[in-house]
């Protein structure tokens, strides 16, 4: 008798900055009792390490050197504050550091380099090999896990995203104005959507959800219904 090969449940949640991906992805992973990873934190950790080592964000060979030295490491740990642990060198990074203005200012530049993306994608796929997972990012459904059973593309108006990110920043003690935030989000949208490698686009088979005016729990219920229907 031939054994039945079952692929582990993989859920990709992609979308622009501050669309609510990470909040929803984490809640979804907890509800389904599966692994959770926000891949944006990996690019942010590399940006932090670049700042720390005075590596130019445009110097791809030097950034690749950091990647090959395993400067960024992830440990899956649902009980930790972020829902996983992220290290740059020996230092564990917290939400405030990852979301700092300095890191945010260079992270899209760091993320545009093809070699950097290749190294990150390889690591993300390795992590996904550990079991069923909910992974959030920009290219999860298109590149990292193209065979994911469920792909969600989460959007929201710029105004809704500014409001959410403002609340998030205030809660973690980062000082930022609405105007600054709105400009930053629009600029990151532009960079993420227009980069040559893996630009931010929905996968052809993604379910698009506009979360403007929805609470995280309403989005979560909608995604859970999609997951249920996919079984
Ligand atoms: O989701 P975030 O704001 O933490 O992402 C930080 C940056 O990393 C963002 O500018 C785009 C980039 N990113 C990416 O290119 N691919 C991913 N899978 C995740 C994030």
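Q: What amino acid sequence fits the structure above?
A:
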């Amino acid at each position: 008798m031939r054994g039945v090969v079952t692929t582990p449940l993989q859920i990709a949640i992609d979308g622009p900055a501050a669309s609510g991906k990470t909040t929803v992805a984490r809640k979804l992973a907890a509800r389904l009792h599966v692994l959770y990873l926000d891949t944006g934190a990996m690019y942010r950790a590399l940006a932090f390490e670049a700042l720390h080592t005075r590596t130019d964000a445009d110097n791809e060979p030097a950034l690749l050197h950091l990647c090959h030295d395993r400067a960024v490491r992830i440990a899956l740990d649902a009980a930790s504050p972020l829902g996983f642990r992220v290290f740059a060198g020996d230092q564990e990074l917290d939400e405030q550091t990852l979301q700092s203005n300095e890191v945010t200012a260079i992270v899209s530049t760091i993320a545009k380099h093809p070699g950097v993306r290749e190294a990150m994608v390889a690591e993300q796929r390795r992590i996904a090999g550990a079991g069923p997972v909910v992974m959030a990012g920009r290219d999860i459904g298109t590149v990292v896990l193209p065979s994911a059973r469920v792909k969600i593309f989460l959007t929201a108006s710029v105004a809704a995203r500014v409001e959410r990110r403002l609340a998030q920043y205030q809660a973690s003690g980062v000082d930022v104005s609405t105007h600054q935030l709105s400009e930053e989000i629009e600029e990151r949208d532009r960079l993420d959507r227009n980069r040559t490698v893996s630009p931010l686009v929905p996968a052809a088979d993604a379910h698009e959800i506009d979360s403007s005016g929805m609470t995280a729990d309403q989005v979560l219920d909608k995604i859970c219904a999609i997951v249920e229907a996919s079984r």
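Q: And what stands out in the fold?
A: The pocket of 2'-deoxycytidine-5'-monophosphate is lined by residues 17, 39-40, 43-44, 107-108, 111, 137-139, 188, 192 (CB under 6 Å).
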